[in-house]
Write a structure and sequence with these properties.
Chain lengths: 275, 407, 62
């Protein structure tokens, strides 16, 4: 069912478009405001696509905020302080240029996406996490005052999660763990979910097995999502061949924009994939 | 066998140290006492259930009849092994060699199955803890030798194809157990002593098998085992996600050749063992999902050939569920339909059923010798006990068994 | 890039679609091996005697 939606719906097409735009902004150094410049602000499909991609739509801002190679293997408290530092630097340095205007506009469109598609009462945990990730990303990556939409009542708390996540993070068998991690790949951006990152980093071998399984099943999107988490950690098994694997997945996917976005982020933030 | 036996890389000659039986012997010790000639230097009681595991430091062979720690999955493993052996036993007519076996018959449907029967039955008859399983396997092994007319067949095959490796490989299976034929050995001395015999062959995995055969027979090795191993699918340690079925089959056989079909797990070089421990769970899950029972069974056998590789209860459950009521395990998917002619049933099931008996035997025996079952990396429906989040524990625990198995 | 698809869309339906994409089930695995591999069931099984050895001529001059 979900699979069909991915293949056929116009939402999937817009998701792919947005993903391609973000990847372009990451790779080409284009203006990071990939969203507002190209999306009709009130298009429900565009807003839905942003909600689907979650924090990844703000990845170019995270990169500018200093999330490139060498700064992203830190987790936990280091990350928090690093993030605060970056926010301060940006707040003082970026004032009123076109970049700031773009950021403002992007913040606005993200705010609308969050407001239009809040996690419902029966939302999945992935949906809650992803929502929370987008909220956190707009706070963390956009200049002060541009992001930080108010969470709809309750949603933020429900998604707050380290406690909620702890269960499956430790108990899930590796295939399920890897699949879930892949669904949450956007949260692997720096600083968004330290507890999740730490928990997954403790299961690097299991994630690596999940990568193997996903590639063997030709599930390129899952493989790329898992690969992003693996790209963060220093102790990926050598024999996995993560770098060649990410390139392989990208090429084998035959131009899947979401796969390309995952691999672009692994490359731009963590220097993994093409060396 | 002593620790240096197995596929020892040094020295020629029969490492098993047992006196070869007179040639032409066709009445193998079968049913009752399944102790094979040549399988061990240490005397072992014929009655199972007696602690008989060689306690000498070099004693490494997995051997039946010991009282190892009970395997947590013994019931399941024994059901698989006994069911498979029973089915194989019922397939004897299909294993029989036709009269034209040395000339016109297709070796892939005649000699190959018989050779595989012998190779795997030999492991079961020496390593399975249950006397019934050892007895049945012993009978099957004796049957195979009889089909070769006490080895005379190999003389015919070598005369017909002096350059071919397969007669040597097949004869080696029996020679390992002390079943020899002087005429064959005279011939082999003439044919394998040539420079031509040393010309590299295309398939490195097969070359490992040839090297093992030379060692078993007592011929000088025609190449360096470690050098050949380094060129195989195992030695290269390919990206685990890139394996295809063919590479995977090559890799399982590399493991069988290195460890002498699981008899001496400690001969697996540690970097390769680590590679296997890390990726086997992913491969096994993947090929089980694909319903490639034959390959999945081989991967389960491989797990039992690697020191300290964890036992994977969920994978075994899935594999066992593919076994039919009559004990057959289909090679792929559902296998031949029920009413299919015997030959079709045979081709579609014999190998995977042999593999099932072999893998279940090694997994069962691993509890009492080399690689004790550890905690599997968390897999679906794995043991409910809280498992460590990764296989890191098993991975980095030094292997206490290795001192037992390494020379 | 998009999007001239701004025709009025049922937001509730879209919300469900968003959920579906976020928490998507695993697609069926796609397994395909090299065609050279699929040649014959038998040769897949083991490598003891593969590939088939050419047979000697039947005339056995002994």
């Amino acid at each position: 069912m979900a699979e069909q939606a991915q293949e056929n719906s116009s939402l999937s097409a817009v998701v792919a478009d947005v993903a391609a735009g973000v990847a372009l902004a990451l790779d080409g150094g284009r203006d990071s405001s990939a969203l507002s410049g190209v999306l009709a602000q009130d298009d429900p499909l565009a807003l839905a696509a942003i909600r689907v991609l979650g924090a990844d739509v703000l990845a170019p801002y995270a990169l500018r905020a200093g999330g490139g190679p060498g700064t992203t293997t830190d987790t936990g408290t280091d990350m928090d302080s690093g993030m605060a530092h970056r926010r301060t630097a940006r707040a003082s340095g970026v004032g009123a240029g076109p970049a700031a205007r773009g950021a403002r506009a992007d913040g606005e469109v993200v705010r609308k996406a969050l407001a239009a598609y809040p996690p419902g009462a029966d939302a999945s945990e992935v949906s809650l996490w992803s929502y929370r990730g987008l909220v956190e990303a707009s706070r963390a990556y956009l200049p002060a005052g541009q992001g930080g939409p108010e969470s709809p009542a309750g949603a933020g708390d429900r998604a707050a999660g380290p406690a909620a996540v702890a269960g499956w993070l430790q108990a899930d068998p590796w295939p399920q763990l890897a699949h879930r991690a892949s669904q949450l790949a956007a949260l692997s951006l720096p600083g968004l979910a330290p507890a999740l990152a730490t928990g997954l980093a403790a299961r690097t071998e299991d994630l690596s097995r999940g990568f193997v399984r996903a590639v063997r099943r030709r599930d390129w999107l899952q493989a790329a999502g898992i690969g992003r988490w693996l790209a963060r950690v220093p102790d990926v098994p050598d024999t996995l061949g993560l770098d060649t694997g990410l390139v392989y997945v990208l090429r084998m996917s035959g131009g899947d924009a979401r796969v390309a976005l995952h691999t672009a982020i692994a490359r731009r933030f963590h220097g993994r994939g093409a060396r | 066998m002593s620790g240096g036996a197995g596929p020892g890389r040094a020295g020629g000659g029969d490492p098993d140290g047992a006196a070869p039986l007179p040639s032409g012997v066709s009445d193998l010790p079968g049913a009752a006492q399944s102790d094979p000639p040549g399988s061990t230097g240490a005397p072992r009681p014929a009655v199972a259930g007696t602690p008989a595991r060689p306690s000498a430091p070099g004693g490494s062979d997995r051997a039946g009849g010991h009282d190892g720690p009970a395997h947590p999955d013994a019931a399941l493993l024994d059901r698989v092994a006994l069911g498979a052996l029973t089915r194989i036993d019922a397939m004897r007519p299909s294993f029989r060699l036709p009269d034209d076996v040395a000339t016109d018959a297709n070796p892939n449907t005649t000699l190959k199955p018989l050779g595989e029967l012998a190779e795997l039955a030999d492991v079961v008859r020496t390593a399975h803890p249950l006397p019934a399983a050892r007895a049945l396997a012993g009978e099957l092994f004796a049957f195979a030798w009889k089909e070769t007319r006490g080895g005379e067949l190999f003389a015919e095959l070598v005369r017909g194809e002096p350059q071919a490796t397969y007669p040597v490989e097949l004869y080696g299976v029996f020679a390992r157990a002390g079943l020899r034929n002087p005429a064959v050995e005279e011939l082999l001395a003439a044919t394998t002593g040539l420079r031509l015999w040393q010309v590299a062959r295309e398939d490195h995995t097969r070359t490992l098998n040839v090297l093992n055969a030379e060692r078993r027979i007592g011929l000088p090795p025609h190449a360096d085992f470690a050098e050949v191993l380094a060129m195989t699918g195992l030695g290269r340690r390919p990206e685990p996600w890139a394996l295809d079925r063919r590479t995977a089959y090559g890799l399982t056989h590399d493991v069988f050749h290195v460890t002498d079909w699981g008899r001496v797990p400690g001969l697996m070089p540690e970097p390769l063992a680590g590679y296997l421990r890390l990726w086997l769970p992913a491969w096994t899950a993947s090929w089980l999902e694909e319903r490639q029972w034959d390959l999945a069974g081989e991967l389960l056998a491989v797990a039992a050939c690697v020191p300290q590789a964890p036992y994977d209860p969920a994978a075994w459950r899935e594999f066992a569920a593919a076994q039919r009521r009559d004990g057959a395990v289909p090679e792929v998917g559902d296998g031949p339909p029920e009413g299919a002619p015997p030959q079709e049933q045979f081709i579609g099931c014999y190998h995977s059923t042999l593999v099932a008996a072999f893998a279940a035997t090694l997994a069962r025996a691993a509890a009492g010798s080399g690689g004790a079952p550890g905690t599997a990396p968390s897999t679906p429906e794995a043991t409910p006990a809280p498992a460590p989040p990764s296989a890191a524990v098993a991975e980095h625990t030094p292997a206490p068994a290795e001192s037992e198995v390494l020379p | 890039m998009a999007s001239d698809l701004s025709a009025p869309v049922e937001t509730a339906a879209l919300a469900a679609e968003v959920e579906g994409l976020l928490d998507s089930a695993e697609p069926e695995g796609i397994y395909r091996d090299t065609r050279e591999c699929g040649a014959g069931l038998l040769l897949l099984g083991a490598l003891l005697i593969s590939p088939p050895t050419p047979r000697p001529p039947k005339t056995d001059a002994r």
